[in-house]
Amino acid sequence: MAExxxxxGLIARTVAHWSSKGKVSSRSATPQSxxxxxxxLQVVWFKRDxxxxxxxxxxxxSQLGPVLPLFIVEPMFWAQPDASARQWxxxxxxxxxxxxxxxxxxxxxxxxxxxxxxxxxxxQRQRGIAQLWSHQETGNDFTYRRDQAVARWCREQAIPWHQxxxxxxxxxxxxxxxxxxxxxxxxxxxxxxxxAPLHPLDGIDPGVIPxxxxxxxxxxxxxxxxxxxxxxxxxxxxxxxxxxxRRYAKELSSPLTAFESxxxxxxxxTFGTLSMREIVQTARLRQGPKAFIERLHWHCHFIQKxxxxxxxxxxxxxxxxxxxxxEDPQRLAxxxxxxxxxxxxxxxxxALRHHGWINFRMRAMLxxxxxxxxxxxxxxxxxxxxxxxxxxxxxxHWNQCQMQSGTSGINTVRIYNPIKQGLDxxxxxxxxxxxxxxxxxxxxxxxxxxxLLAQPPESYPQPVVDYEAAARQARDQVWxxxxxxxxxxxxxxxxxxxxxxxxxxxxxxxxxGQLSLDLN
Length: 520
Prior knowledge:
Layout lengths: L4 H11 L25 E6 L9 H6 L5 E7 L1 H4 L6 H21 L4 E4 L2 H11 L2 E5 L7 H17 L3 E2 L16 H10 L41 H13 L5 H4 L3 H7 L4 H5 L5 H10 L4 H19 L20 H8 L6 H13 L4 H14 L4 H11 L5 H12 L12 H8 L4 H6 L31 H16 L4 H12 L22
Parallel strand pairs: 1-2, 1-4, 2-3, 4-5
Helix pairs in contact: 13-18, 16-18, 17-18
């Protein structure tokens, strides 16, 4: 993809000017005659770990020499179809707070805009890199390929690249045997020591935090979005453990209660303003909800799948489902705009668009409706949802998209009934009326099925399809493929590779449990 015109000037201003006193022309880090030799830098590359607390890379690097804390704004990353302005704005707020925290340690965060490898090459030429540090990242396909390129360059330059674990994900994992105990061992380890004081670096422009407009991100109104920054995350964790989480297990499934009773820490985990380990340890110390702590384990369980098989972002886990669905832009637009004609579905979608968040069960329902009643490919609907989620975490998101659309090969095909979900979780239609003002005057008896009223509201659309007939047809097609020759053999291989070992099953090809991943 060609670089967009609007970001070209921004990149030119930031990548090429490491020194505020002028660019060093030499390709080596050798100082000019008469000047003091400059020690090569310990470069701490912040990615989605925007904190100084329990930060292994920063702590270790700070003990070895001068540290340059670096964040690279990558326009090509933000041009990907799963990125959005609401995500960047949360990230930018987190960067501003991180910059202050690092300045208090002695050296402010340096921000550069451009292609990551080009930024690192320029730094190596102009200041010299002794070692590169960053936490392990399991991101989308873009970051995976970018890190492969950076790793090759580091090997060519003989620059050690240290990548300590941040989540309970294990690189180059052969199989899942022993994974759960390894997660527990990591979570029980003491938090990393505070970094040593950072020596201020002379002559380096700290750079600017660009706006969403600078990055050419499309307009993305999200008035109810959470604010980024570690202080916001700490406040949320405290209020959840002290008060909001008291009825977590009972109230996490309904959107009427989930916005208050769920932890709402998912965006802070995605951007790393809090560490997984400090959340686990704090929750246990404060005797937080057991169901919440269990979901922290599942968080890493799903990311491990994408780490072990990056193709799960764009390829069916079970290849029997290849070609099953076809893209339909018109149906996608109806769904994403909240105009399906099923009130509870549309209310959930509109709430998501407003807040950038909705609870897990409603995410699962939205994905199920897209995949079965609307028969959309999970990749198409998944990208649309990813842009709406401020807390978009690729490892969780794409595996959940596959689970809810029936292509994982090892999970029960579960087709959500959009009317029953509304009756179960919003029986009086309170949530529906909040988000669908066109239905505010509809009585309770018709709020979930307004098309059946003697006089349906003219301002609200009829259902896009017969949801029951569509569900039956979808079930027949998905289950029909499971009866095919060789299906179970491939499903067993998927289970051996990705299945949880915490609870073994007699028939590993089908997981009958339905995960409710409410970190949110």
